[in-house]
């Protein structure tokens, strides 16, 4: 058995178990049904992923309460990873340096007394990307 194990690059125990199964059952196929039993159904799998799509800031505890089955956070993370959803922690606040904060405060103080006429002279512009329809072709919308 040791020589065969070396040739097939498996442990001697694995080769012995395979040989015993062959002589006992006349097959070498793996038995099905082994491993951890599923705690949640496919419908609950989809519910986990749907919740993350609807609300990207949803927590593990909220998902677990909605599913109604006692599952660990690793299970939820695994299901989200299988759906190609990455876990991201949102910023509690923008990571501003003290200098940035000071400059923002000065900007606001300089314009604190502006009236509607002053603000009408300002042009605001922003470029955002939106997905229109079901395809992934992005359309630029500028305003």
TrEMBL record:
Domain annotation Transposase Tc1-like: ranges: 45-110
GO biological process: DNA integration; DNA transposition
An annotated Gene Ontology molecular function: DNA binding
InterPro entries: RNaseH_sf, Transposase_Tc1-like
One Pfam family, short name: HTH_Tnp_Tc3_2
Record's protein name: Transposable element Tc1 transposase
Natural source organism: Trichonephila clavipes (Golden silk orbweaver)
